[in-house]
Amino acid sequence: MQKIGMSHEGCRRQHVRKWDKAEDLELYGILREEWNGANKAVDSTRYRA
What we know:
Blueprint: E1 7-18, E2 21-29, H1 32-46
Antiparallel strand pairs: 1-2
């Protein structure tokens, strides 16, 4: 997730149950401005002539 520009925002410990076992849930996020800026950089290199 961090490779595509998302930031680690935290960990919810023992938040979900999976096969009768409590599992941690890692949270990642990205701001709209960061996402749009990353997409503009990709778009500018994609359509070069």
